[in-house]
Amino acid sequence: MSSRRPRALLLIALIAGACALGGAGTAVAAPTGMVCQNGTSFDLTARSGYVETPDGNSVFMWGYARTGGAFQMPGPVLCVNEGDTVTVTLHNALAEPVSIVFPGQRPVSTGGGDPGLLARQAPPGGQVQYSFTADRPGTYLYESGTDPAKQVEMGLAGVLVVRPSGHPDWAYGSADTEFSPQREYLIMMSEIDPDLHNAVETGATYDITKLHNRYFTINGRSFPDTIQDNGVPWLPAQPYGALVRVKPYDATSNPRPALIRMVNAGLLNHPFHPHGNHLRMIAQDGRRFLTPSGGDASSEHFGETVPAGSTTDMLFSWTDQDKYSPTNPLPVTIPGYNNLAFKDGDTWYSGSPYLGYKGTLPATVRSQNVCGEHYFPWHSHALNEFTNFDAGFGGLATLLRVDPPAGCMAVPASTKIVTGSLKGGTYASLATDDSPATYYEVNSTTVAPRRTEWYAGFTGVPAGFQNLKVSYKGRSSSSCTQTVAIWRWATSAWVQLDTRAVGASDVSIANLSPPAPQSDFRGTGASAGQVRVRIACSGPAVSFSSSGTSMNLVYDAP
Amino acid sequence: MRALADQRTRGIVVLTAALTIAAIALPRSAPSAPTVQSIDLCAKSGTTTLPGGASVPIWGFALKPDGVACGDAAVVATTPGPQLTVGAGDTVTLRVTNALPGGRTIALEAPGVDFDAGPTDAAPGDTVSRTFTAVPGTYLYASSGGGGRQQAMGLAGALVVRSATAGQAYDTAASAFDAEQTLVLSEIDPALNGSANPDTYNMLQWHPTYWLINGKAHPDTDTVDARAGQRLLLRYVNAGLEHVTMTMLGLDTRLVARDAYALDSPFSVVAETFAAGATADGIVAIPSGASAGDRFAVYDRQLHLTNGAIGDPAHDPGGMLTFVRVVP
Question: Under 8 Å CB-to-CB from A27, ≥6 apart: which residues?
Answer without folding.
Answer: none
